[in-house]
Design a protein that fits this description.
By secondary structure, the chain is of the alpha+beta class. It has 2 domains: 34 residues, no CATH class; 175 residues, Beta-Lactamase. It is built from 10 helices and 5 strands; from the N terminus they run ααααββαααααβββα. The longest helix is centred in the middle third of the chain and has 21 residues.
Amino acid sequence: MSADYIKRLEQGRAHPSQPVIYALSRAMRLSKEEYEHFCAVAGHAPACEGCVPTHLGAGARRLLDRLDAGPVGVFTAAWTQLAANSSWAALFGDPSTARGWEPNLVWREFTGLNHCIDDLDDAERFRASLVSDLRVAVARYPADPELTELLAALHSASSAFDRLWNSAPVTAPGVHRALIVHPQAGRLRLDLDILTIHGDDLRVALFTAKPDSDDAQRLALVEAIGSQDLSASEPAGGRS
């Protein structure tokens, strides 16, 4: 959004669309209640009942602000990524550049785009937990058309997903061991913890390294390289 458009909104000379309201609510860090009031004032309905919540609540924002010991990504209940900290972007790339179903972790896992967990037993357990969690989302949000489309696309694209959907036991996300290969820093073995923010029904993926380990040093190198890349992309005058 341009500065001129923001000015016209402030002066009442423009009427924001629903996507603009959502973007502004995230930028202003509104609570769920404030976001819903914002929608009502602008004459728009908030996210429909029966749809997967996509509001980045205060708890998730605090996690992104305060957890700086490793990459942190925030996902919807359907495992579509909403946000990430700078460490995540340095390790996996900027999630805002993903297109189509690429922001969805279940899609990435079952279509060969995700290459984190190399232990076969742990990978199967990780996949089963994703599918189990997605089944819960489908039952909880039956009116979400995007979730219905995602499910159809997964069944069509992956026989492994189809098999697990029909057979995987109910499991809870837990702790996994991840192997990530970075082009400059090399191989990193990290712990992957999956947390749940119940009030907003969000999922948080948190990667950490054992303190003072070689992996911790490599992760610090990744973050340093990432910050250099971000600095290099800024205008010559630096941050405004």
